[in-house]
Amino acid sequence: MDRDDESQSNGWKSYYGDRLNDDKDDNDDIDTLKAERDRLRERYAASSQDAEEDAHTRQFQGFTQQLREEAPHLAEATTASAGLAGGMPPRQSEPPADRPTPKATSRNATYVPPKKPKVLLWSFLIALGIVMSVGAGALFYLWNGLRPPAAGEPIEVTITPGMRAQKIAELLEENGLIRNAFLFSGWMKLKDEGSRFQAGVYRLTPGMTREEIVAKFDAGEIVAAATIKFTIPEGFTVQQIAARLADAGASDKTKFLDAAKQPALWTGSVWTSTLPSDGSLRYPLEGYLFPDTYEFKRGATEAEIINRMLAELDRKLDQLPEDWQTTLEERGLTVHQLLTIASLIEREVVVDEERPIVSSVIQNRLRKKMPLQIDATIQYLLDKQKERLLQEDLKVVSPYNTYLNAGLPPGPIATPSYKSIEAALYPDKTDYLYYVTKKDGSNTHLFAVTYKQHQKNIQISEKNEKNKK
User: Fold this and answer.
1) What percentage of the chain exceeds 70 in pLDDT?
2) How far apart are the first and last CA of the chain?
3) Nearest partner of 91 among 57, 56, 133, 49, judged by Cα
4) 141-162: burial string, b at 16+ Cβ within 10 Å, e else
């Protein structure tokens, strides 16, 4: 400031020249003007100083902020050093106390920070990269898990009834037909597949698409399993059945005969539970293995074959008239006795029309408590069938010998046909007690009520035999 404080006693110096003011009023006016001038000067100086300080401050703060972002520790050290070294611009000394203090000027300067590094942009790009990487990984996982595996040799898989989609997927993965069971089952749910799958054996090739596999299951394109087919004729014994199965390659003869003696394995028929357990039966299942043509998968066990044949017996019994069990009770017979009579008819008769007649002879003899004297029971006991039985054959000691024992044998002697079972249940009403084969090539019989008539019939039979020769 251009202020002169040395000659206050002699007045004050004006910018318009030196002049002594002795007049009090004039001095007062001059002092007032002078004070006003001083205040304006101080205000101007203060404003300039504040503006300069603000500019320096903003510049310093911006620099400090930049240092903090790039090197926080350096910024702190720089701030401390600036404070100690008087790096801040020096402020001018306060005006003397006897002079009026200039009124502070309120300023609301807007701070414009320096441009920051592109941190947010980099953060966004990094996050975007991570999301894209995860998404790409998920897409690769799905693509790799659902794409077909490498081609290979055909594989057979079996879909069982009621198998769920997840189990099917696991089966396919185990056999190398798909890569990922979890993804495959999820894909099937998404496509609403699996409910139309048909049970069976399928031949699938590694490399097939999932659509091709599902299409086969939906269409039921099963592979015909390797099977074995055989026929059990009517009148076969258990031993003959075992030999027939062995010849067909369906079973081992010894194993089959062993299984035919183990009741714990028999689950095919409800009637096997009523079999006698006194040990009198030569083969417990004799007469219960129904004669028919069967087809089994290769490798079927002896127990599976037996139970299939037992189940066929039950099915045939169910085809009898509805009153068959009532009729059986009225006659005082059990199912075991019915099958025994039917087996005798089966081994004695060839022509179906004669089955009910022979059944009536058996019934009439049982009523009179006469020995049945049926040759077929003796043949059953022999290791080899004979064309003509000898007298010594009729003396074999066995409960199956109907020449020595009255009544029925302990059990069936062969597998009866449906016609024989039906004839045993519904015999004709006759008075016949005897019959003999005609031996004329017709496979029919001559029947008689009396023994005398029977002897005549025997003569006719022998004559017919001679005439054939």
Assistant:
1) 77
2) 172
3) 49
4) eeeebbebeeeeeeeebebeee
Structure tokens at 32: 């007032």
Comparing C-alpha atoms, which of 20, 27, 119, 117 is closest to residue 66?
Answer: 117
Residue 58 predicted with pLDDT over 80: no
- Rg for the chain (alpha carbons), in Å? 60
Q: If we measure between CA atoms, which residue out of 121, 110, 111, 118 comes closest to residue 69?
A: 118
Structure tokens at 9: 């006693």
| 3-state SS assignment for residue 396 | coil
Among 21-25, 29-33, 119-123, 362-366, which is the least confidently predicted range? 21-25
Q: For tokens 């002169």, what's the residue?
A: 4
pLDDT digit string, tens, across residues 282-295:
999 999 999 999 99
CA–CA gap between residue 200 and residue 224 (Å, rounded): 9
Q: How distant is the alpha carbon of residue 411 from its chain centre? A: 47
Architecture of domain 155-219: 2-Layer Sandwich (3.30)
Each residue's pLDDT tens digit, 166-199: 889 899 989 988 888 888 888 888 888 877 888 8
In a 13 Å sphere around the CA of 268, the CA atoms on its Cβ side amount to 22
Q: Cβ neighbours of residue 78 under 8 Å, at least 6 residues apart? A: 64, 67
The span from the CA of 410 to the CA of 398, in Å, is: 10
- Domain spans, the chain: 22-77, 155-219, 227-317, 351-408+422-432
